[in-house]
């Protein structure tokens, strides 16, 4: 079966900025979905902030292998109940690709447990993306580095936990460096953060960026079965015979504390 990818886009700048509309006339989410769909191993659908339940219903997420997330101007408008739902699916095994300014999304900060803040500058400067781990699946097909002609500078310090792997590191024309491609594992799910992708520049049209996204989807695809977290809802019976001692907080048949 093809990898089922849901491409989530905030879809705000595309409706308010003529510059963004010119670069991404069908929206960044559609551009990313079309890019991924070029791979016969991947099938895509899109979801946006403006849809019912932000397009991320229980049925949609249940059939999603990998979710990509791009947001910027409306992080606070994402309902907490939907964030809870996405978090639960990541812990079960769904892959998550967090793109560019999605670093400050509710779901990314929730999963990483930090502010995910950084320094930035919007000047359309050159970004050189260095491949730190050429053997990593996400970096396959790339050389030692590639360049983004116009990019928004993201710089250190980047307030995130130490990653499991740093796949890419960027240098900017103004002198800053940034950990631009990081992997994490939360529960049973794999997470990849990739910073290139500013809305006013045609970064998602660039072949190297498109290759990274397709590679990342395949890397983040769930492996094995789904982890369903239902184990703390009731007392676990012992494997060996025991004699119970001491007082109990929970009455027989109660679910206990969550």
Question: Can you characterise this structure?
Answer:
The protein has 258 residues and is of the alpha/beta class. It has one domain: 3-Layer(aba) Sandwich (Rossmann fold), CATH 3.40.50.880. The chain has seven helices and nine strands. Strands 2-1-3-4-9-8-7-5-6 form a nine-stranded mixed sheet. The two termini are 36 Å apart.
A few lines on this structure:
By secondary structure, this protein is α/β, with parallel strands linked by helices. About 25% of the residues lie in helices and about 30% in strands.
Q: Can you give keywords for this protein?
A:
globular, 7 helices, nine-stranded mixed β-sheet, alpha/beta
Q: At the first level of CATH, what is the class?
A: Alpha Beta
Radius of gyration: 20 Å
Question: Mean pLDDT, rounded to whole units?
Answer: 95
> For this structure, what is the CATH homologous superfamily?
Class I glutamine amidotransferase (GATase) domain
Shape call: globular
Strand content: 25-35%
User: Which architecture name does CATH use?
Assistant: 3-Layer(aba) Sandwich
Helix/strand order, N-terminal first:
EHHHEHEHEHEEEEEH
Number of helices, where a helix is a run of at least 4 consecutive DSSP H or I residues: 7
Distance between the termini: 36 Å
The figure for the number of domains is 1
* Low-confidence region ranges: none
CATH topology type: Rossmann fold
Helix content: 10-25%
Count of distinct strands: 9
Lateral strand order in the biggest sheet: 2-1-3-4-9-8-7-5-6
Structural class: alpha/beta
Largest sheet: 9 strands, mixed
């Amino acid at each position: 079966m093809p990898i089922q990818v849901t491409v989530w886009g905030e879809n705000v700048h595309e409706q308010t900025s003529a510059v963004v509309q010119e670069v991404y006339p069908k929206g960044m989410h559609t551009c990313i979905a079309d890019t991924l769909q070029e791979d016969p191993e991947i099938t895509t659908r899109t979801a946006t902030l403006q849809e019912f339940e932000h397009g991320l219903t229980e049925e949609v997420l249940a059939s999603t292998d990998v979710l990509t997330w791009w947001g910027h101007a409306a992080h606070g408008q994402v309902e907490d109940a939907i964030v809870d739902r996405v978090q639960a699916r990541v812990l079960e095994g769904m892959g998550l690709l967090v793109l560019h300014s999605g670093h400050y999304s509710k779901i990314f900060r929730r999963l990483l447990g930090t502010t995910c803040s950084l320094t930035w500058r919007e000047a359309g400067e050159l970004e050189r993306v260095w491949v730190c781990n050429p053997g990593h699946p996400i970096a396959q097909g790339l050389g030692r580095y590639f360049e983004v002609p116009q990019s928004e500078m993201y710089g250190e310090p980047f307030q995130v936990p130490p990653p499991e792997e740093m796949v890419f590191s960027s240098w900017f024309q103004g002198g800053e460096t940034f950990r631009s491609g990081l992997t994490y594992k939360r529960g049973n799910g794999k997470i990849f953060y990739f910073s290139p992708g500013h809305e006013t520049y045609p970064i998602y049209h660039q072949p190297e960026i498109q290759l990274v996204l397709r590679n990342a989807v395949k890397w983040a695809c769930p492996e094995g079965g789904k982890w369903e977290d239902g184990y703390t809802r009731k007392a676990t019976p012992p494997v060996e015979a025991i004699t119970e001692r001491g007082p109990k907080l929970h009455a027989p048949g109660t679910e206990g504390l969550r």
